[in-house]
Amino acid sequence: MQKMSSKYTLLVWVLAALFVTACSTQPRQADHDAPASQVADGHAQAAHDKASQKQGVNDAEVAGKAIVEPEPIDSNLSPELLFRLMVAEISGQRGHINVAVKQYLEGKAATAEVPPDLCYVNNFTEPHRPRFLELPTGRGSQLQKAMRRLLEEVRPVLETALESEDYQTRKQVLEKKFEERQGEALSDLGNKASKKGLALVRTPVGIVFAPVGEEEVLSPEDFQKLPEKEQKRLEKEIDAFKEDLQKVLRQFPRWQRQATEALRELDLEVSRFAVKPLFDELREQFEGLAGVQAFLDAAEDDFVENASRLGSRGEKPTSIAMDAISGGDDSEKPSLRRYRVNLLVDHGKSKGAPVIYEDNPTYPNLVGRIEHISQMGAVVTDFNLIKPGALHRARGGYLLVDALKILQQPYAYEGLNRALQSKRI
After folding, report:
1. Residue 402 backbone class (left: φ over 0; alpha: ψ -120 to 50; beta: rest)
2. β-pair partners for 337
3. Residue 111 carries which DSSP code?
4. Has residue 416 got a pLDDT over 50?
5. 8-state DSSP, 328
6. Cα–Cα distance between 85 and 96 in angstroms, integer?
7. At a CB cut-off of 8 Å and minimum separation 6, what does 354 contact?
8. pLDDT by residue (tens digit) across 210-251?
9. Contact 357, 100 (CB under 8 A)
10. In terms of Cα–Cα distance, which of 32, 117, 25 is closest to 290?
11. Overall average pLDDT of the 31-48 stretch
12. What angle do CA 148, 153, 154 make, to 5 degrees?
């Protein structure tokens, strides 16, 4: 959702007459608040009366001139005279008027300021509400290319870091520490048991305690040969040590979680050390753009958090299969799409304000649409599949729409009216 602002002009005409509506619009995103713009709308009939008084020319004369001599309109033409030219629509000369109006608007737009670029990026905390970025002219394309280049570089760098000798050594130390902790706990319990004539034995079904004779574990037959009093004592000791063993074994999951957390901290440290220089380079390139800085910070944190999964060795088979199917550069792979930049409107090569004529004003063509793709038999979508409408492309300039065509399209008028009334797309 975008809040409409900036100098954004909408021109709508019908078969009976034409009118001009000027409005100010500004894109809005859930976390992008901007002041609502002013709406300036001239009253068409008043403009017509005023023009008739000042110019002394009746509508028939103006209409006739527009029909017979559809010459280019001066960009400095007054709105009053522009309205009177529009009345020629009654005579069925729509093509001439369309050209005239477009020429007039192009003349006005040529000296206007080029509007900013519009982008969508991932919201890593709320993926269903992507972040909207409004960037200086030409910077949107630069950000998109920079992130694509970063994704091509960051994965090999990350894999190299996680396969380095230093990382493997530190990982082995942590794993060995966990194993030693388990071994020491069981060894202490075994030493206590040996003083009572028992041995701690590891079997395929688990750890058990068995009576010991002359440095050997007694077989069931030998155990039955012991005095009954000794048998009862050993059985009692075995039951007591079983309880001690259970207490020790109950500590293992907690120790395992601690070991896993230590390994995770190691992964985070090594991963951040590897990718931070790449993100810092982009931060310098887009210094002064708060929205971009926030996106880069969030992207770096998310990348580091998922480093082990994003590495080729840590990917699930389904992710590897999808990446192989996608081919192309790394930024196109499903596991990395979340870090891309969806450049909605690029004005990098534009001169002046845009003048957009929407000949097919359907609801999606006006307000945009969200596309879907098929992955592993499921239909999915994300912020990369948000496509712009005429209202996005004409932001900061002029949008020409045939009102009759709008009324013929389902939901088109309601959508356009709602966007203009709420100042949101």
Report:
1. beta
2. none
3. T
4. yes
5. S
6. 10
7. 109, 115, 347, 393, 394, 395, 396, 397, 398
8. 888 776 788 888 888 888 888 888 889 888 988 999 999 999
9. no
10. 32
11. 35
12. 95
